[in-house]
Amino acid sequence: MARFTDRFIKGLKPKDKRYEVRGEKGFAVWVAPTGTKTWMFIYTFKGKKRRVTLGAYPGMDLKSAGEVAKDLRECLERGHDPVEWRDEQVRKEEEARLKELRIPTVAELANGYVEKWAKPRKRSWSEDARMLNKDVVPLWGNRKARDITRYDVIKLLDGLQERGATITANRTLAVIRKMFNWGAENGLVDMSLCAGIRAPVQENRRDKVLTVDEIRSFWKGLDNAGMTDGSRLALKFQFYTGQRKGEVVAASWAEFDLKEMIWTIPPKNSKNKMPHRVPLSDGAMVILEQIKSLAGDSPYLFPSPREGKHVAATSIDHVIRRNLDVFGAGQFTPHDLRRTAASHMTAMGISRLVVSKILNHAEAGVTAVYDRHSYDLEKRQALDTWGRKLAEIISGKHSENVVHFIANKTG
Predict the structure, then answer these.
(1) Are 86 and 43 in contact (CB under 8 A)?
(2) Is residue 381 classed exposed, middle or buried when 0-12, 13-18 and 19+ CB atoms within 10 A define those classes?
(3) How many Cβ atoms from other residues are within 10 Å of residue 299's Cβ?
(4) With bands split at pLDDT 50, 70 and 90, how would you rate the model's confidence at 165?
(5) Predicted local confidence at residue 281, as pLDDT
(6) Domain parsing of the chain, residue ranges
(7) Strand runs labelled E in 1-74
(8) Are 168 and 160 in contact (CB under 8 A)?
(9) Res. 240: pLDDT tops 90
(10) Which option is the CATH number for 6-102: 3.30.450.20, 2.60.40.10, 3.40.50.720, 3.30.160.390?
(11) Region of poorest pLDDT, from 285-294, 322-331, 339-348
């Protein structure tokens, strides 16, 4: 039994055949005819003699080889087969390595969330992407997603509040929570770290309905507001029809039957994924003609400067926020225009059922699919009445043609 030292190992000379030199307690080295020297651990387990290759010298030095041999010897003393134990260790190390490769950075997690979850499910996915790319990815992008802590989230939210972006802090927390929930569901992170983190700012539920004076002020303010003609017309068209801003800006000319004065919103654009027929009043048709002259040959009513796309729904939010002082109607959003139209319709005696049909609120049951076209007449009467009322408000002149009625039809 030899006492291994570097000098001793270096002095071993090759022979015609491979030979073995034993050290202490199963530690050995094999010397090949080519001069290659390989560390081995030799042992007997359950009556069978076995060998484990540890590595080649000098790539694996004497100290490293000795430590591995010691680990295997201790494994044997515990009653385990060192070969099986080592194979298990190698397997675990490989699994850990592969898992590390699969763990995304925050930038990769954000991109995966937007492309695989938000885009297929949310018309407002671009707003999620904007928030992530503005305040999250620049700060955390290169870090592994699993290394982000609750403290990191809270610190990010504190920073947003310090710069005065209080509502943005709430929205950013919401999208971070969705992103990490998606990551946890897909095995990319172990758990969502946002559980239990409360929104930084208490938000009051907004039920803004513009008064007659505010409607008139808003409409006149549109002429002086800093926005494109397309944005002006989009807001006017939304007000006349009472539809969602996302449905308005995403509309294409193929959805319109101008002869019948009907706009059919396709399932891909409607919130409840059901087709929705919107009768067009005379006022809406006038706005539509103006939109057509502006849109030119584009398939969309409101084409984006980026070829082949329509403008983003968020652009309408932005132009309202920038021009609130010009409108003189207090704080309001595009959705408040839709609520205002609905509220004024019910105030004129139009039934809530018909208004609900106009707004395309979600309905339950199979019959809801077959029930949609049966309210076209009531919806047209209601929207015509609202169109005349809106024209009266804008002009400031009372019209005898604006009637108050109650639609009595039941489902």
Answers:
(1) no
(2) middle
(3) 11
(4) confident
(5) 96
(6) 6-102, 106-185, 212-395
(7) 19-22, 27-31, 37-45, 48-57
(8) yes
(9) yes
(10) 3.30.160.390
(11) 322-331
- The span from the first CA to the last CA of the chain, in angstroms, equals 98
Predicted pLDDT at 376: 92
DSSP 8-state assignment for residue 311: P
Q: What is the CA radius of gyration of the chain?
A: 36
The alpha carbon dihedral of 397, 384, 272, 317 has a sign of negative
Estimate the crossing angle of helix 334-347 against helix 376-395, to 10 degrees.
100
| pLDDT at residue 344 in the model | 94
- With tokens 């509309």, the residue in question is 251
Nearest to 168 by CA among 121, 203, 214: 203
Burial of 34 (0-12, 13-18, 19+ CB in 10 A): exposed
Q: What is the pLDDT of residue 205?
A: 55
Asked if 15 contacts 32 with a C-beta cutoff of 8 angstroms, the reply is: no
Q: For residues 104 and 145, is the Cβ–Cβ distance under 8 A?
A: yes
Instruction: Give the total residue count for the chain.
Output: 411
Find residue 48's DSSP bridge partners: 45
Neighbouring CB atoms inside 10 A of 198's CB total: 9
d(CA 105, CA 354) in angstroms, rounded, equals: 50
C-alpha 179/C-alpha 111 separation (Å) is 9
Same fold flag, 6-102 and 212-395: no
pLDDT value, residue 411: 37
Tokens linked to 35: 């001069």
CATH number of 212-395: 1.10.443.10
The predicted pLDDT at position 206 comes to 63
Rounded to an integer, what distance in angstroms lies between the CA atom of residue 351 and that of residue 78?
82
pTM of the model: 0.55
